[in-house]
Amino acid sequence: MATFEPVLSRNWNVPDSHTLKVYESRGGYQAARKALAMDPEAVLNIVKDSELRGRGGAGFPCGLKWSFLPKDRKATLMCVNADESEPATFNNRILMEKDPHQFLEGILISCFATKAATAYIYLRFEYIRAFGILEAAIAEARAAGHLGKDIYGTGFNLDVWVHRGAGAYICGEETGLIESLEGKRGWPRIKPPFPAIEGAFRKPTVVNNVETLCCVPHILERGATWFKSIGVPKSYGPKLYCVSGHVNKQVCVELPLGVTCRALIDEHAGGVWKGRTAKAAVPGGISMGLLSASELDTPLDFESLRKPGCLGLGTAAVTVIDDKTSIVDYLYNTCRFFAHESCGQCTPCREGTGWFYKMLKRIKAGGGRIEDLDIMLQMANNMGIIPGTTICGLADGAAWPVKNAITKFRGELEDYIRHHQAATTKVTPLQERIAHGLPVAGNPPLPQMDGPPGPVPEGGAVAWRSPSAKPA
Prior knowledge:
Blueprint: H1 20-25, H2 30-36, H3 40-50, H4 62-67, E1 77-82, H5 91-98, H6 100-114, E2 118-123, H7 128-143, E3 148-151, E4 156-164, H8 174-181, E5 205-209, H9 210-222, H10 224-228, E6 231-232, E7 235-236, E8 238-245, E9 251-256, H11 261-268, E10 278-282, E11 291-292, E12 317-322, H12 327-341, H13 347-364, H14 370-380, H15 394-408, H16 410-419, H17 429-435
Parallel strand pairs: 1-2, 1-5, 2-4, 8-12
Antiparallel strand pairs: 3-4, 6-7, 8-9, 10-11, 10-12
Helix pairs in contact: 2-6, 2-9, 3-6, 5-6, 5-7, 6-9, 12-13, 12-15, 13-14, 13-15, 14-15
């Protein structure tokens, strides 16, 4: 740890780090010149050998994803996921605002390796400052010959365009992103075909995250062996960790993959605020689940987080929850978010996220039951890609915090339900009469069905008749 040299954040504290002049003065675009002098397949193999895993959430090997492109393709597109809609995640925003040319160099090398002539940056609409900085950086790079036609005299052409999304969480899923980019509703596609075969505008498409592509220039500059010397087995390289929530200092810090959650909180975020202790921590965005206080020594890498039952590393956005915060409040906010952000295409997700939210709302209002926890757990185990009931993984991300919270904090949740019961309201006589079909305020009794309903007549009305009705 002591000898670790930050590379992704090395320019952040340099004045005017967002400009081309500063970036080139610090060795910028030299890795791109080196890459474009090679064969595209050789560049792809270097990235593949580095075992770089996607930093956007799923952790899929980047070079392997590139290799899925058809060999006989006529055109290739690159889509960059800069939506960053996972709550408490802000590392991509800082990368784009403080060092946009590092990002553009990563796009250039990656497009060359995959033979993509057009790249679309799908940017979260709320990132207004990042949008202005990116547009200026693209103009600078184009004017300097780093983008456009015949880059560095190699005959390689590349156009980069920024597309602003409308702030939908579902558009962080790669096919939902592609649908939105095409001007359609952001609904994930059924796969196969996968984007590498048929993606944006029905052409072979590579989808990568901002931080993933920012790693590529450094791999080309220093080599795959250097990259694999950082981190832990199966989780190589540097990683930007975000820490927020109940800490003394909210930070984004670059460290080798595998740092423990406790070290991140105590050494880099100044510890838990107000002299309190941590009850739990979200290790990588709310969709990943929870680490309890006894699990904070878990390494934050792609493999280790599965042992305590988390979905994975996700975006490595750590949110700390102190010992004065109710897990019910955490669950309520989490379920409200996913109920709002579900696209509604798949029934288990559309209905399940809404049911989670309504049940938590009722529990907070004092109407909870102990059996509600078992119902929510059953629902959580039956929705998502992992049990095979939805098209995308949003449902898994919505279910995982529920699973973790009920499993790890069941005692607290049961105590909350027992001690937060609203005073019961007596049933009024009017409600009793309505429930039993009795006359209300002079109205005649409700008609009773005499035997099974008959066939539906023309016009669609069901034949009903009162027992006292005389036959025609």
